[in-house]
């Protein structure tokens, strides 16, 4: 896998100062400078090292189960009158794309000489992916999680504990993801020498957005090869992905950003409706602000307080968006849509019945917009099926009776 390609001439990749257009950068407390600076100066060199890439590739192949299949969904294609391919990240070990990033970051942490890992988690998916790689690499693992989320997500808390992680409740603020992130940052400030912070999405201070995008870029590298084998061309007409912080989307788009014929579609969580007050459609509702170390689009009140987001899917329930995506939105390179909770549920049932695949609630948001694309008969669509639906069964069952 070539995770260290030179993207220096691209308008859509990070620039040498850590920005995507006017978004990105590293807006961090002074006490975090040493940690973040160490990453900034070393990450690219480490990712470029052939022995690093060999170890990353081998684990992706033999532990995660990559390459993940690119599957032509025939019945779904018939229904929407186009050729729809699903990139099956749901078949990865631990059930989603998140493991690609945690494998990359744990190998990086080893090379930085760290022996302790911290992470934040909301629904617990990133916490589980982090606890998994810590077990694999024999590293101490501390996961911060809002105390409300700990109650809501008991099975994932049990998984993390079984994998040997310590789960620490974040009891401040709304006791959810953004508070857990604040606690993780506080821990990192107190433990700058031995600890690496495995951030779970394509946000945070530079270099995290680029680093996470590169670990996830295996997705689009595989798509190019697989699509060529199956259709004769590496280039689809549409790429579709859901966006929480933006890591599965960044991975899906990465090797296509500079292919202007490929249309990039990003789907945010519309919640109960974009203007209902219960939504996580950041590009439509957000303004320029700073969250968790990055300048980006962010849902906030007029005096700059973060607005609590809402989505039926925990993975999309975030008030910001990674800086790469804020730039794709503002530059017009990406088209941003939103799907409501209701639309996503319908799409999840539809995929289950048409293809025998139960998608994650997050991925169902991407599926829900197939009906809104101006598809033509010979169009090729590649949609990132970011994860599987086992974790969402309770939500699905609750809505089945309606
Ligand atoms: C966490 C998660 C997401 C959202 O995170 P991104 O960083 O935006 O990809 C999407 N799908 C699944 C299955 C997830 O677990």
Could you please describe the fold and organization of this structure?
By secondary structure, the protein is α/β, with parallel strands linked by helices. It folds into two domains: about 150 residues, Rossmann fold; about 220 residues, Rossmann fold (3-Layer(aba) Sandwich), CATH 3.40.50. About 40% of the residues lie in helices and about 20% in strands. It is built from 16 helices and 14 strands. The chain has a six-stranded mixed beta sheet, with helices on both faces. It has a four-stranded parallel beta sheet with strand order 7-6-5-8, with helices on both faces. It is globular. The protein starts with 18 loop residues before the first strand and ends with a helix. Pyridoxal-5'-phosphate (PLP) binds next to α11 and α15. This is Tryptophan synthase beta chain. It catalyses: (1S,2R)-1-C-(indol-3-yl)glycerol 3-phosphate + L-serine = D-glyceraldehyde 3-phosphate + L-tryptophan + H2O. One of its GO terms (molecular function) is tryptophan synthase activity. Tetramer of two alpha and two beta chains.
Short structural description:
The protein has helices at residues 33-48, 50-64, 74-80, 98-111, 125-137, 147-152, 154-162, 177-190, 208-216, 218-231, 247-253, 282-285, 323-331, 341-355, 361-367, 393-400, and strands at residues 19-20, 23-24, 70-72, 83-88, 116-121, 140-146, 166-170, 195-197, 238-242, 263-271, 287-291, 294-298, 334-340, 380-385. With 402 residues, the protein is of the alpha/beta class. Strands 3-4-14-9-10-13 form a 6-stranded mixed beta sheet, with helices on both faces. The protein has a 4-stranded parallel beta sheet with strand order 7-6-5-8, sandwiched between helices. Strands 1-2 form a two-stranded antiparallel sheet.
């Amino acid at each position: 896998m070539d995770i260290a390609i030179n993207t220096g001439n691209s308008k859509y990749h990070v620039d040498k100062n850590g920005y995507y257009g006017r978004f990105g950068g590293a807006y961090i407390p002074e006490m975090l400078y040493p940690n973040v600076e160490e990453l900034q100066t070393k990450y690219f060199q480490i990712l470029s090292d052939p022995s690093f890439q060999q170890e990353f590739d081998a684990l992706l192949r033999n532990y995660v189960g990559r390459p993940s299949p690119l599957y032509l969904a025939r019945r779904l294609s018939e229904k929407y009158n186009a050729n729809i391919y699903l990139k099956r990240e749901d078949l990865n070990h631990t059930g989603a794309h998140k493991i690609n990033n945690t494998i990359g970051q744990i190998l990086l942490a080893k090379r930085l000489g760290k022996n302790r890992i911290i992470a934040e988690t909301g629904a617990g998916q990133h916490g589980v992916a982090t606890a998994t790689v810590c077990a694999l690499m024999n590293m101490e693992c501390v996961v911060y999680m809002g105390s409300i989320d700990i109650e809501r997500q008991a099975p994932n808390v049990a998984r993390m504990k079984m994998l040997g992680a310590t789960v620490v409740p974040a009891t401040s603020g709304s006791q959810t993801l953004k508070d857990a992130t604040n606690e993780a940052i506080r821990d990192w400030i107190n433990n700058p020498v031995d600890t690496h912070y495995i951030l779970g999405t394509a946000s945070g201070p530079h270099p995290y957005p680029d680093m996470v995008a590169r670990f996830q870029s295996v997705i689009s590298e595989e798509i190019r090869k697989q699509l060529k084998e199956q259709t004769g061309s590496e280039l689809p007409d549409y790429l579709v992905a859901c966006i929480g912080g933006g890591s599965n989307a960044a991975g899906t788009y990465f090797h296509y950003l500079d292919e202007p014929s490929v249309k990039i579609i990003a789907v945010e969580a519309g919640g109960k409706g974009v203007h209902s007050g219960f939504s996580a459609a950041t590009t439509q509702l957000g303004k320029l602000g700073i969250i968790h170390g990055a300048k980006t689009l962010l849902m906030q009140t007029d005096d700059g307080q973060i607005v609590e987001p809402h989505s039926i899917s925990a993975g999309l329930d975030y008030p910001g968006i990674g800086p790469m995506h804020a730039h794709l939105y503002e530059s017009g390179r990406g088209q941003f849509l939103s799907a409501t909770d209701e639309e996503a549920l319908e799409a999840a049932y539809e995929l289950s019945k048409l293809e025998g695949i139960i998608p994650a609630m997050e991925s169902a948001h991407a599926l829900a917009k197939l009906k809104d694309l101006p598809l033509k008969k010979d169009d090729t669509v590649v949609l990132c099926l970011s994860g599987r639906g086992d974790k969402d069964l309770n939500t699905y069952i609750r809505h089945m009776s309606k």
